[in-house]
Each structure stands twice: as C-alpha cells, then as structure tokens.
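Ticket reopened. Same input as before:
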Amino acid sequence: MNTTRLAVASAAALGLLLATACTTDEIDDPDTQETAAGEEGGDDWFVQADYERQLEQREIEPEGDPAEPWLQAIDPDWVDTSEFALEGGDATVCFSNASVSNPWRVTGWITMQQQVEVLQDQGLIGEFRSSDAADDDDQQISDIQAFVDSGDCDAIIISPSTTATLTPAVQAACDSGAPVIVFDRGVNTDCAVTFIHPIGGYAYGADGAEFLVDNLEPGSTVLALRILPGVDVLEHRWAAAQEIFGDSDLEILGDEFTGGDAAEIKNIVTQYLQRGEVDGIWMDAGDGAVAGIEAFEDAGKPYPVMVGEDELSFMRKWDETGMTAIAPVYSNFQWRTPVLAATMILSGEQVPSEWVLPQEPITEADLDEYLERNADMPSLHYAKFGGEDLPGFPDAWRDR
Amino acid sequence: MQRARSAAAALLGGGTGTVFALLAVIFAIVFAVNPGFFQAASLMAFLKQAAPLVILAAGQYFVIVSGNFDLSVGALVGAQVVIAARLIDGEEARTVPVIGVMLLFGIAVGLVNGLVTTVLKVQSFITTLGMLLVLYGAIRLWTGGAPTGSLSESFRVPGRMGIENVPLLGQVPWALLIMIACGAAAIWLMRTRFGRVLIATGDNDLAAELSGARVDTVRTAAFVLSGLSATIAGILIGGFAGVSAQVGEGMEFTVITAVVLGGVVLGGGQGLVVAAMAGALTIEALFTLFNQLALPASLRPSVQGAIIIAAVAYAARRRMRPAGQTATPS
Amino acid sequence: MTETPVLAMRGIDKSFLGVPVLRSVDLTVAPGEVHALVGENGAGKSTLMKILAGVHTADAGTIELDGRPASFTHPLQAQHAGVSTVFQEFNLLPELSVAENIFLGREPRRRGFIDRRAMAARTAELLADLGVEDLAANAKAGTLSVAHQQIVEIAKALSQGADLICMDEPTAALADAEVELLYRLIDRLRNRGIAVLYVSHRLREIFDLCDRITVLKDGRRVDCVDSAAITPDELVTAMVGRRIEAVFPEPLPGTEIGDVRLEITGGGNAWLDGIDLQVRAGEIVGLAGLQGSGRTEIAEAVFGIAPFTRGSLAVDGRQRRITGPRKAIASGLALVTEDRKAQGLAMHQSVRANARLVLDANRRVHSGRRLSRIPGILSGLDLVSRGLEQDVQYLSGGNQQKVVVAKWLATEPGVIVLDEPTRGIDVGAKHKLYSVIRRLAAEGIAVLLIASELIEVIGLADRIAVLHDGRIAGELPGGATEQQVMAHATGRSRA
Amino acid sequence: MTSERLSTTALIYVALAGVLAAGGAAVAVDGGNLFSTANLVDMLTRTSLTGFLAIGMTLVILCRSLDLSVGYVAALSSLVAATTMDGAPGNVPLGIAAVLLVSGLIGAANGAIVAFGRVNPFIATLGVGLIIKGYLDTEYKGPAGDVPAIFQQFGYTRIAFVPVSTIVMLCLAAAGIWFLRSTRTGHHMYAVGGNIDVARMSGIRTHRTRITAHVLCSMCAGVAGMLLAARFGTGSAEAYTNLYELDAIAATVLGGTLLLGGRGGVAGTVAGVAILAVLDTVFNVMQIDPFAKDVLRGTIIIAAVALYARRQIDRTARRPRFAAAGTGRP
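Engineering reply: fixed in the latest deploy. New output:
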C-alpha cells in the first residue's frame, strides 16, 4: 500500500543521503559524546557529585571584589586566552539568546545590553549582534550556525535554551575558531573558552529546602510548585530539594506543574488548602509566588513558610506580610559577565575556564536593603540584577 | 410550552446530553474521593476559579456556532491583564477608566477578527491565528518583554472578593455572580432575533443571506462578543491571581475543547450555549478531579486527552441519526 | 419477459430506528428495459435505490443480478456488480476534470500509477458513444451546464460497465430541450441492452420512455404494470391512493387582476437585456425558457442578488433600487429559491426557526402578529412534521419546500417569485403547491412563476413570458401550446 | 483543475519572489546582503524542519482534516530515534524504522479517531497530542538518548550551500507531489476533501484515504523529529513547546491549500514554507526585535491569505453575457 511504499522510499532516501557524507562543517564527536552520555540520563536528574560540589561552593569565599559580584569567581581555574587576543578593539560580538520569554531573562537581557553600551563607548566592542530563538532549540541551532557561517563574529556568546540539545551546535561554534562563551545553562562539551554560571540549581533548590526544614516543625506539610518538567536547571533545583526533604521529617503533599501561571498556581494552592493544612511552600522559581500567598489569604489560612525568589513582587509581599520566607537567588547579574568576559578574552586576559559566580539567597536580614535598592523598579524585576552602577540605571529597567 | 419542550429535547439529545452526564459522573467521583469538596466554601472556590473559562466558553460559542473559530482569545486574555497592570500601575483612581479602555480594546480586537474574516474572506482559523501572534508580540513589545506596573486593589475585587457571610454559602464570589450574569445574557441573546439569525447563518449562510440576514454583520458581532468575553475573563483572572507573564497561554485550545465537549459542532449551526458553558465547567471539574485523585501532574494531559476524545466520539455517535427516507447524498 | 431479469429484488425490508421504510418490496427489471419506479416522496423510492446502490443494506430480502444472488455493503460492490446510480444531486467534484470525475475511484493505471493519457482517451470514446462531441475531457466539472453534468454522470455509469443504470429524477433540473437529449441517450442505452431504472414524478416522461412501471406506496409495492396498460390518471391514483385532478386547479372564485405590483422596464445586467415585464395583483406570470436562458437570472435581478444595472424596477408603482435581498424584502418581495437545500433552508434548525427566519432577519417586516400567524400558515400548507420543533433535515422534500414557502408567506409579500417551486417533490405536494399559488393570486399577490416543466407554466400562468438568450423572446397568453412556447424558447420565431 | 492549481501555485511562487526581493532590498538598505552564502544556508536550513511538517500537513488538510499533534509526534520521534540509535552507528537504520513505525501508528490512531470515531480532527488530534504530551512528561524528564555522528550529518552536512536536510525535504516534497498526482490514494485525497459523500458514492474508500493521509502526515512529523534528533545530538521532549503544528498549518495555507480541503498541493506548500523561512532570516539579519517578529509574521500571514481569498472570489464569478467586454453567450 502507498503508505508503506512512501515510508520505504523516504527511509531509503534518508539512508542514501546520509551515506554521501560530503561535509562542510564537521562535528568531531568523541568528547561531545562522552560528556553527553554523562549527565543527560534523562530519567534521573540527581548527580551526587555535582550536588555535593555545589553545596560546598556556597561556603567558599569567591575571589574578586564583593562590590562587583558579576566579576567574582569561586575557586576559578584561570586559562590563557592569548590565542584569541585581538588588536584594536572594535570587536564584533555575537550573542545567541535562548529567549526573553520570562521576566528573569528580560531583566538580564536589559542588563547585558546596558553593559554592552558601556563597552561600546569604551571602544572595546564594535558591533553587537544578537539573535533570539524564542525557546526553540532548533531555531537557536540555526542562529548559531548563521553566526558561524557569517564569519564576522570575533566572539560568540551563547545562552543555550537546553543543555544537551545545543551541544553539537556549540561544538560547531568552537570549531569555527572564534572564542565561545556559554552562560546560564551549560552544554555537554568543555570546548567553550569559559562557561559562566552561578553556583547552580542544586544550591538553589537546597537553599529553599533547608530553610523549610529549619523553620518548620517536624511533620509539617510542604507543597512543591514547579514550572515545567524537563528543563535541567529546574530539575536540579527539585532534585536537590527532594534530597533534603528526604532526610527530613517534612511531609511533601505533592509537586505540581504550574507553567509559572499565577492563576494556575492560585488554583492549585487553593485546592490543596481545601484538602488540608499546608505549612510550607517550596517553589523552583518565584514566578507567581504572590498568587500562591494570596491563596492562603483568601482561604483565611495562616501564611506558610515560603520559598520564593528575588523577584520584587514576592519580596514586597513578603515585606508587607512579614511572613517567614526566603528568596533563593539565581544570580541575575550573570548577564553582565559574558560580555565582560568577551572583552577580556579578546584582549588576551585570563578567564576562569568555568566561571562560577556567587549565588546567595536573600534572607530576612538583607530583605530591606534590597527593597531599598530597587525601590522604583517594576514588580517583575529581580533584586540581584546588579546593574545599579550602569549609566542606564534606573530608567532602562524601569520604563523598558 | 413548546419551546421549553424543545429545549429539554435538545438538552438530552446529541452531544448536549453527553456533557451533562459527564459533568455528573465527574462530580460523583469527586464526591466519592472527597465529600468535603461539596462544602459551600470549596464549591464556591471551585466556581470562582471556573468562572473565567465558563465566560470565555460563552464568547467562543457565538463564534463557533456562526461557523468560525477564535484562536486569539488566550492571547487577548493575557494582553488585557498586562494592559490593566501597566495602565493602572497601582493607582486606585484609574481602575474604572482602564476597565473602560480594556472593554474598548476587546471590542476592537473582535471587530478586526470579524472584519478580516468576513470582508477579506480569510478563514477565521488563520485570521485569529495571526491575531494570536500579533497580540502576543505587540503586548510584549509594549511592555519590553515582561509585564510592568501593578493592579489596584479595587481592580482585583471582582476576581478575588465576594459577598461575605451569606447564609449557608458563606462567601459568594463576585466572579460567580458575573459568570451567572454573563451566562444569562448569552442565553437571552441566543433567544433574540440576533441569536436566531446567528445560528441560522452558521448552519447555512447562503439561505440566511437570501432571507435578508446581515450575515457578515452577525458573524463580526460574534467575534466582538468573543472579544468582550475575553476581556471580562481577563478582568476576573487578573483579579483572581494578579499579573504574570504567562496569563492566558494556551487558553484558546482549552476553551474550544470545552465548547466542543458541550456538543457544539465545529462548523456552526448546532449546539446550545448552556451546554458550551457546561463544557467549560466539566473541564474545570476534570482538573479538580485530577487534583483530588492526586494524579501525577505529568500524567494529567494524557488522561484529559483520552477523556475528551472519548466524550466527543460518544456524542458524535449519539448525534448520528438514520439517513432518513428523504435524506439524499451530499 | 422470459430471459433472466438483470435485476430481481424480492421481499426487501428496510427500517430505520424501528420505523419501517420498505416492506417486502419486489422489483424486477429485464435487460434493455426502461423501468419506471414511481411513488410519492416517503414512499421508499430513494431508500430502494440506495439499497441498490449499496449505500444502505436491506434488513431482509434477496437481490439477484442476472440470476446471481448479490448483496452490497458499499457502493463499490454495486458498481462492480454492474449497477450504477445517477443521483439527483450530481456526484461530481467541481474541482476535478470531466475525465477525473468519470474515472473517480477507478482511474486507469499503468504499472500501478494513474495513467492520465489513457483516462483522457477513454473519456473521449465514452462521450462519442453517447453522441456528445461538445464536451472536453479536461474541462472542469464545475464549469459545465446541468445537462452536461448529467451526461458526465451517465458516461460514468457506462464506464463502470453497468448493465443497469438507476436515474433519480434525471430531468428535475433539465429544460425540455435538454430532456430530449436525455431521451436520445436513454434510447442508445436501451439499444445497447442496458436496462434503466427510471425514478420520476413526471408522468409524461414515464409514459414516453418506460416499458413497465413499478408503483411504491408507504414502503409497499402496490403495482407493477406495462405502461401501455394504464392511464396517467389511474397511475396517479395508484400512487397517492386518492383521486386528484391531474389537471391544474382552476383560479379561485373572486380572483381578479388588479393594479401593476411589479414592473420592470428595460431591465438589464451582465446576463439580461431589455427586460420589460409587468405582474399585476392577482396575476400569475410564468417565465419559460431553456436552461441558462435567463429565467433564474431574472429572479436574482428582481431580488437584488444580481441586480439590474440598466432600466428601472417599480413595486406597487414606486421606483425601487433593489441592491440586495434586504431591500427586496423591505419592498414587499419574496423569492422561493430554486435549490432549497443550498439556498432555502438551515437544515439543522427547527421548522419554526426556518419559518420565522426572514422575520427575525429583517426588522422592517418583523412583528409579533406575523410571528403568531406562522403555525397557521404551515398547517394551511398541510405540513406533515413531528411538531414545529422538528429539524427540517428530517422532513421529506415536499414538506421542506412547504417550509420554504411558509417562511416567505410569513412576510405577507406583495410580489412573490417562485423559482422551480415543484422541483423534485411528490405529486401530492405538487398539487398542494399549485392550489397555494392560486390562493396567493386570489389574495391579490402578484406571482412570478419560473418552471422548467412547460406544462406547469402553461397550466397555471395567466401570461407566459418566454426567455431566450437573456431577452424576452415573446409573451403568450396562459394555455398556449408547448409548441408555441418552444418556438420562442429556441429562438426559432422572434415575437 | 490542474491548470487552476498551477496558476495558484504560480501566484505563490510570485509571492515568494516578491518576499525575497522586498527582503533583499530591506537588508541591502540595512547594509547587509540577504543572498550571501551564509544567509542562503540559513534560509534553506530553516525550511527543512517546517517543510517536513508542512508537507504532511498538506495531505491531511487536502482531506479536509487537520493535525495538531505533529509537534508532539516530532518530539516523541526525536526521542525514539535518539534512544534507539543510542550512539551506535549500526542502529541508525533501526532507529529510522522505529520512528517511522511509531509515528505511523500515531497517525493511524489520529486517522481512525477522525474517520471511525467521527471526532472533529481539531479535537481528535489535539487530544492525541495531549496524550503524547503526558507520556513524554512522564517518561522523559528532559533530553535522552544519543545520536551517532553519522546520523548527525543529516542535521549538519551541506552539499555546497544546500543542507542535506533541505535536500531530503525537497525529495519528500517531490514524492508528495508525485503521490498526489499519480497514485490513486493521493488523487482521491482531493475527492475526499472536496466532497466526502461524492467520494464515497464513487466507491472511494474514504476512511482508508483519510487514515493514509494522517499516517503519512505523522510519518513526516517523524522525519522532522529525526531531523531534530540529528541536530540536537539527542532526543528532546521539550521540542513540543514550540507550537510547530501552527507553523506547519500557516505554511500550508500560505502555500495556497484550502483549509476546507479539496484544493491545493505540496508544490505550493514548499513555497509557503520558503516564504516563512525567508522572513525569519530577514528578521534575523536585520536584528528585528523578537516580539516585532511575531507581529510581522501574524500580519503577513493574514495579508497573504487575504490576497488568495480575493482571487478565489473573482474566479467563482459567472461569465457575463451582456457585459461591455464580453460578447455573445458562453
């Protein structure tokens, strides 16, 4: 029948075309594949070693000026970049962005653009090209290829939309000879000159989980709210939290996917409150945290012990209600670092091969300070965006 | 009275009967799992959160029964919430004027959808798909990617508050009352000349036109009603949960599913608005049921999909009548 | 007939949801015979044909083809068995070519793939066989005239190697001249030994064409006779079980021709030219003419669907620029359209909803009083339905047509245009409509009657305007002979 | 009919040329060159993924159906491919076979639900999509499997400046055109979409035809999934979040295929895909704000379809008899 005929045909066609490997851009896979095999088990996100390392890193005093956390690094291993040194500045820097599809990325993107302007004024960066993949891995692969093929990028900055899937594209970018800088989410290859990221998901998840364990009576109930499954940075947060809850006497009522939609969050919390007490809320990201809190208000229940994020709407709610809460931070200021790193690399300065930025939760203690600092910032802004010293501040972030 | 009888007949016949049956079954199971759900408080909470979808369903019904689609409602709901937040920016005084602006915006979007579909003869699926993209992009362009500003307390009243200490019921949410009002309005509208012409248009637009119906006008009006319902839904959702970047995402599919679940036939001309709203209620009830059963979150889409297909297939069977003596091919 | 019949159906039963539609019906057709199947709508003709076509399956009974037992569960099987059906709504796809339509589902193949050259060639052959040259194999079916579409259907049947071709109301949409063509085709078929099962309401054709007649009534076969052995009146009686005048009802007493209600002077547009036409109160004016001569176009022009671009139009003496149905309705016009399925009814809506649609859609004519008259109007038309809330899709053709008429009467029009009001409906309903038309006249309404069946126009109209090529070729008094009408219609004599 | 379709298709290629010209000009003004190798490669690369999906989508839409599940099927397929191959070049054929089998079965399910279950394709395929989503969310918490380098060539290799994936897509398109024109099942899709009762009366196995269309559509989605896997070097469940199905539908309709079925073809679809790809590249080269992209995309899609609609209306006009121009009767 035609179905099968066409199937065979297309299958044959594929096989044939694959046989004719007259390649233009090679992917040398050995190291790619090895590392790939490593972390992406798919099913199990918990890697004991990474978990422990990140928890230690929280204690380590980072090198560099605390006033400029985006330039600090936790036990860096500096690499020589003289091979990439470029005479006369005016470099063309290309940035492949996964997306600006959530407030955290929007805030960071503004910060990066502000930083770029400064560097352009200093003449360190000439043209700054960016592309946005709207969270579509395939799109981003094309974007990166386009940069590589255009051949005018002196440095390529990549914020991968998904770790494993972008690996081949990043590899290809490295092979193009231009220095590659990866930040935020990683990739399964170490071919990038530097990989910039805060301590990481395990630490983030642990910060909140430990806070709940410390602040709740044994036997208390905790509801976990997650955005969506399958994104490594988020899965690590949950994996760490599970690890910690596992050793505690807290009862986990359930873990729900909310898509970060406030209405969804409020629905779910409301329904849990109908079924019984909820003493604590753990979230893998702060989006919609306020809606979760309101669910308690509307149900006339006492405030839970809350794990949010350094998103202002939550921190302001936290402040006015005076509830027990913590705001884990996935350092938004990391968006400044890549462009700075690019200029460093292009001027042959050393950079950490893995550039681990500090990542400290905001606690009761420093809540007021950060609210103070961001007094006139919009509600979906992130407290630790670290752009206060940039010329565009505050307008660039306030009226975007 | 005859009309009453016909209504009863319609309710039981075809797809319409299915949805009420399904709704009953779901509630029965919920009750079995957790009788507590039927205490006034939790029931009210349920209706409060269901209200926006029910109102959207009513709006979508008008468009579908007139033979079109409106895929832009999800994006419109989101846009409305963001607009509200940005324009109100925490100022109580601005609440009412801004709501006025939102209503106008909703009407405008509906008008554009309607005119592009009727005058430019673009299939509504494409029109509203395009509108979805435009709204999504435009609203983010306007706010620089993420919502800014904040809602005023009074704006949040309809979606969040209610009439306190009503005997037996406790708090009666405004959202519930608004839902009932919209539902009643929709039912009344379908009994008016407009409604009759609308459904006839969806059934056979040529016959309607030759009978002097303003086919394009009623169809456009349907889109406007959908735009209005999206606005009201936006006000309720924004009020219920405040601003977030993801509000409304994917709602268009949920609401169309709800309407079809209510036995309304895609392509127009068949189905009751009551049933469409019941469909929305059913979907919300289904989500509640999942929660009550503590069904793993990741598994829920599968169950939802299966149930929807089953229900619609079942309804399709019931709707099938004999190809009677007078029936002729084509 | 000694030879084995090409078709022998015995004891066919069929019921839908327990409602019996056919009760042990027998039907035998001899090779090369033209066999008429008559009966009112609802008598079970269509169901019987559909069983024969493999659309429905009989609950009981046997079907034999050339003496061999057969049973169909799919149209394909019927075709393979040599039974082809030409339905009333043509089964042609406008987007496909003549050839593609003829061979749809049976495309000639070479090495498993469609062989378009062969397809075109064989199409040409078939058409030649039927003596039709002026029809291109690659023409899009959508662009063909009704007559040509029917020819394509018959060619399709032939190409399926049918030895029995069933035709459902084949002349319903044809003008008399085109009917002649059909007659010739049927003769050719007969000569090739192909049997034809001929379903029609038109007594004349039945007697002209058919060798034998099987009469169905209420799902039973009441009779099967040689056409020579029965008179039209007897046949009608057999069909409807009561004796009704085969001739047309006389004008009701008190009908008098009054002032001019509709007046067209020098009307013209892209399809019409120099139309001068007057219809007076109480007058029935017939529009005759061949298919495509402009009959329907006049109706459309008057009703503003394709308005006159030249000349003037006056209703009750007042000049009107009618640019669309709404204007037409507002000025007291009504149009019972030709195709009730496509243009007349919202099939999934109730009888009531359809009957009040025009009132609902036009504020100018909407009124509580008119709404309240609707049930009366419907019962005045002897509508047979399970209440006003029943969906019209479940009514018989005749009753559907009554709903269409009712929805226009509800507007209390001054001028009513009836375009093929009796197309494809049963004798009983036809006669009902005839008397309704008379009654309208008696009520002082101006009636413009369009009909392909000359006999209707002649029998009912006070005056007959004959169209040819978009112009009025001549006017004749009522009761003129068919020859006179045809003379004008074919443009042989210019009046 | 052929001539008709050609002329429509021709129009679309004209449109494509127009878009290329306009885009080229815009980029030139911007000081770039749209037709530089790099940009050509980029355009062609972007055509392949949507191309695979849209070719399949064309078949179902021709049958007056729809498939909203292709995005999920592609995601699933990428995982099936990656996990089956699991880094071993030897497993490549096995992986391909597995994907085609799985996607084919899903297509069969879609088709069966639409044909036998009489469920509106919109709902049916939406439901199936949800079912797959649930499975993916439950089974795969993120990327899984490992694609051997040899198969990654499918995603990265280029012959001159033409990516292999694009060549494969074009081959598939050619196959599709041939299939629709020269096989009965293909040819019958026009009949089924044009008027299903007529098709049935003509002895066409309408169910089989529709199901075949759905099977082929899903298989195309499967191929798209394999492309994803090849480019990702692994399988990714997240791929379904990108609403590929809507892109595919937009491309198909842009390609002049009637959403109501019965008219259109793969040739046009390829052009539609190309138009979208060109737009994306232009937007990228010109550094258009990501949100402005959505606005432009939406507007352009609507505008284009409106243009086609104009043409449809003109065509259906009756030939005049007494028009100043026209002489004598047709």
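Chain A has two domains: 11-199+332-359, 201-326. The radius of gyration of chain A is 23 Å. Please confirm and we'll close it.
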